[in-house]
Write a structure and sequence with these properties.
18% of the residues lie in helices and 40% in strands. With 68 residues, it is of the alpha+beta class. The protein has one domain (11-61). InterPro entries: DUF951 (IPR009296). Pfam families: DUF951.
């Protein structure tokens, strides 16, 4: 199975919604853990990379596209 490609600053869609009702998250920190910021209510969460990769549905906006 191919690993999904994601990077710092990307907007991603997760499998489960945040309690505020949105499903869009921005990656604001990467390492062994991934810090995500909810695009609906600006709440941030820190989750292990392995759990993040399982929960990632798709990358909506890449950071490179946003700058261009």
């Amino acid at each position: 199975m191919e690993r999904k490609q994601f990077g710092l600053g990307d907007i991603v869609e997760m499998k489960k919604q945040h309690p505020c009702g949105t499903n869009r998250w921005k990656i604001i920190r990467m390492g062994m853990d991934i810090r995500l910021k909810c695009q609906g209510c600006d709440h941030s969460v820190l989750i292990p990379r392995q759990k993040f990769e399982k929960s990632l549905k798709k990358v909506l906006v890449r950071a490179e596209e946003e700058q261009a």
